[in-house]
Amino acid sequence: MNVRTNNNPAESPLLGMGQLSLVEHALCPLESRVASVNRSAVHLSSHQFTDKTGKRRTSRVRISSPLGLTPTDEFYLWGLLALTCSQPEPSPEFCATPHYCLRQLQVIDQHSKRGGRQYRQFAESLARLAAVNYQNDGFYDPVRREHRRISFGFLSYSLPLDDDSSRAWRIVWNKVFFEMVQAFGGHLWFDLNVYRQLDPASRRLFLLLSKVFRRKQHSPRFDLQELGVQVMGFAPTLARRDLKIKVRRAIARLEEHSIVSEPVIQAAGKGRNATTIIQLTRGAHYKTERRYALPHVESPLSELMKTIGLDLRAIRRCLREYSHTVLQQWIDITLAARERHGESFFRRSAAAYFIDNVQHAAKGTRTPPDWWHDLQRQERQAKSAAGRKTKKQSKCPDEGNAAPSLSNVLYQQFRDLGQSEDLARINAERFAATCEQAASPESQAAILQLLK
Predict the structure, then answer these.
(1) Please, which contacts does 78-81 make with residues 24 or more away whose CB atoms are closer than 8 Å?
(2) Cβ-proximal residues to 243 (8 Å cutoff; 6+ apart), any chain
(3) Which residues contact 133 (CB under 8 A, 6 or more apart)?
(4) Which of 62, 199, 256, 321 is the most buried (most CB within 10 A)?
(5) What tens digit of pLDDT does each residue of 78-92 get?
(6) Residues in the chain where the model's pLDDT stays below 50
(7) 103 DSSP assignment
(8) What residues form DSSP beta bridges with 85?
């Protein structure tokens, strides 16, 4: 999917950016109500790939989410990646106000009040994403052009202590993850407006098909269980007929948006080997080559400099003449000075203070004040304290007592239903982990007796 730069935002849709290996499987179960409150949630999944010898293999995926994870968080993950990579000089560090991010993602409009429910949801989603650890033993590395064992987090962040602060939020992408996203052959651009109109299950199928339909007219022949559970995130305990209904419903949603056409859903095999095969055809959404154009995205620094008091002409000059690193630093210092000391701190004005310091800093003759370093240290300490509290809450005192035996019993149950060894093991471990987190030891023992 080719990408070009476009200075006319009216010609381009709102874009999201997905990582090609991540769209192969669900990042969390679809039961967001459970996942959102489940501490130390571990989601196990898998996906198929072809190794360098042409042999089909199964990669095992483990996603640890100490704060839980919901399908809604994926919208912010793909949206923030797109905003970061749409900047003139994309880097792993992205600084912007929450108002800027939500406005660019069209969650709010330019007239919306700052703060409120959307801000809180965005901050909560950011916290959950920052706590995630992702592991995959068959992840395609587009830089080295081979499948590798990998482990990374998504992002880190630094936010002002005051919720009402006008200072920027600092989001720093994990170096390994961002390298995988930025590399040629490591990402795909997609229509975020279409994505937003879909339900979570349809969204995941939309991203996988966006990867497949870039090169092929028809999808592979998907197994119902693999597609519904591993890609879309439905529970592995769903009866086949119920899973089939839910997957059909998601496909119908994609048909409404012309993403797929002529779906073929047919039974295959008999007895224990009976399954359902699904094949989809590329819809009109992909009929012409979609040369997505990077929209002319307003720099997040523009909004911040406007807050300081610079006019449009001065903002453009600053963006043209000074590095974003210098601008980001002195924007934060200026806004922090205003919040800490008030307008009386500035001899002339906040805008004059900012311009003077940027000019000297660009020449190497001005460094940040000590009080600003002290403030940053306080913010780091506050974040570390919050992280320690999270780890303490996420510890499970009965960890390991019931899951191994329950996992083995479930494994045999899934094998009896006709699942492959790899799929049965993954589903058994995933369901056992959920039971371990949600039930007391007595309840786990009762479940085990019922299964036996």
Answers:
(1) 78/16, 78/17, 78/18, 78/190, 78/192, 78/195, 79/16, 79/104, 79/105, 79/192, 80/155, 80/171, 81/16, 81/17, 81/18, 81/19, 81/173, 81/181, 81/187
(2) 224, 225, 228, 229, 234
(3) 63, 64, 151, 152, 153
(4) 62
(5) 999 999 998 877 899
(6) 1-11, 32-39, 396-404, 450
(7) H
(8) none
